[in-house]
Amino acid sequence: FPGLITIFVLADLSFKTERTMLRGPVSEKEAIALITRKDRKRRTYYNQFCKSKWGEAKNYDITINSGRLDIQGTVEILEAYIHARVRNVESPTP
Fold it and tell me: How many CA atoms lie within 13 A of 19 on its CB side?
């Protein structure tokens, strides 16, 4: 699939916990449990239906740590990457 772009966004547990707690009234312990559960489900699904392992950088076009750039910085980097890839698919170099 020439237009397929695979992205893996990761963050430290502390960053994910803070963001989860901001999104809803949950304690730190509940947030960590929710994150752990969701990540386990994602990993299981990916590993079951894909030929590679979830989270391994070599399996993605781009892997980015959203905790280092914050959400807006991550969005800007991903938008730039996607636009560049789209341009490349539309007019590939020989």
Answer: 12
Residues 46, 48, 49, CA angle at the centre, nearest 5°? 70
The residue to which tokens 């980097």 are assigned: 77
Structure tokens at 85: 């890839």
Q: Map residue 63 onto helix, strand or coil.
A: strand
What does the pLDDT look like over 14-46, one tens digit per residue? 999 999 999 989 999 999 999 999 999 999 999
Measured distance CA(93)–CA(48) in Å, rounded? 35
20 contacts 35 by C-beta, under 8 angstroms: yes
Q: Which residues contact 14 (CB under 8 A, 6 or more apart)?
A: 67
pLDDT tens-digit series, residues 65-84: 999 999 999 999 999 999 99
Which pair of tokens denotes residue 81? Answer: 């990457």
